[in-house]
Specification:
Helix content is about 30%, strand content about 20%. By secondary structure, it is of the alpha/beta class. A six-stranded mixed beta sheet has the order 1-2-3-4-5-6, with helices on one face. α3 links the parallel β3 and β4. It starts with a helix and ends with a helix.
Length: about 150
């Protein structure tokens, strides 16, 4: 693979990074397609799912369904970071180039669309409802055990 030639290696873990503002789980490439990846990161107590990507899809509806679903699956914020296009340069068939922040309930809280720029949003991670986590974790654990 070309990636291995520049030093990239396949991983076998889904780590959660404890940063100064909270715990972040990172999904890449096709990870957004499968709820199990996001659920494992949630089980490891991630508070935010970061998804840096270069992604093509069937369009906006497909993008929104997957990203919103991962937020609803886990009750976590999903931060999508992609490159943008200069105004008027995007055309159907090109990479989607969309960056957004999806709330824990699946609502899009901030969206820069396909534009070039920086997207920010203040969220209060202290307001995460950890009381519901034992039930959510139990359900996810049962689902994951059935898959293994």
């Amino acid at each position: 693979m070309p990636e291995q030639g520049i030093g990239m290696q396949a991983g076998n873990d889904l780590p959660v990074y404890d940063l100064d503002f909270g715990k972040v789980g990172i999904m890449t490439c096709m990870d957004i397609e499968y709820p199990e990846v996001a659920q494992i990161l949630m089980l490891k107590r991630a508070e935010i799912l970061l998804f840096p990507h270069v992604q093509s899809s069937w369009g906006e509806v497909d993008w929104e369904i997957r990203y919103r679903a991962r937020a609803v699956d886990t009750g976590l914020y999903v931060v999508s970071a992609c490159y943008g296009y200069p105004e008027g340069e995007w055309m159907p068939g090109m990479m989607i180039g969309r960056s957004s922040i999806v709330g824990r309930d699946g609502l899009i809280l901030a969206d820069i669309g396909r534009s070039i720029g920086v997207l920010t949003l203040d969220v209060d991670l202290d307001k995460l409802d950890f009381k519901s986590w034992p039930v959510r974790i139990m359900i996810c654990s049962i689902c994951l055990q059935l898959l293994l």
